[in-house]
Design brief:
This protein is mainly α. Helix content is about 75%, strand content about 0%. It is elongated, with a radius of gyration of 29 Å.
């Protein structure tokens, strides 16, 4: 709906006022047609349907937020997996060198990155490091549920991608 009085005060002319009246009438007619086609002419029924639609929207929003949160967790986990894999050989060489101070000084960054990744993975999955493919699969599942949440399946979004 267009506020005709406000637009006239803003400097619009009589032609705009005529167009706005017709536009507002068309909008009201479309609204009445929709309400009558869907048997929503009684306020109690309309209020009930609006409450149901709002509840459904809120439920879907919660599912989407949970899926996005899980996807962020998976992204962090994937970063740790990649860091662990990239620095594993350096860390194995460090262990074979008998935890040499000289070797550690030369490869300080890789060793610290490896240890941080290993500690994070242990915290995440109780001493078993998941493969990057399982993270990708979990992320795809979460994306699908985020795009088309299906509450009728009975599978909550927060459980998507569990290892």
């Amino acid at each position: 709906m267009v506020d005709i009085q406000a637009k006239l005060q803003a400097g619009k002319g009589a032609g705009y006022a005529r167009w706005a009246k017709v536009f507002n009438l068309k909008q009201m007619a479309q609204t009445m047609n929709y309400l009558s086609e869907n048997n929503l002419l009684e306020y109690a029924i309309l209020e009930e349907k609006a409450a149901a639609a709002t509840a459904h929207h809120n439920e879907l929003s919660a599912q989407i937020k949970a899926a996005e949160k899980r996807m962020a967790e998976i992204a962090v986990l994937r970063t740790h997996i990649v860091n662990y894999a990239k620095t594993r050989e350096v860390y194995v060489a460090y262990r074979k060198a008998g935890y040499s101070k000289q070797f550690r000084e030369e490869h300080e960054e890789e060793i610290l990155l490896h240890q941080a990744a290993k500690n994070a993975l242990i915290r995440w999955v109780s001493r078993s490091c998941p493969r990057s493919k399982s993270c990708s699969r979990s992320t795809r599942n979460c994306r699908k549920k985020r795009k088309r949440p299906m509450p009728s399946t009975g599978v909550p979004v927060r459980k998507c991608g569990s290892f």
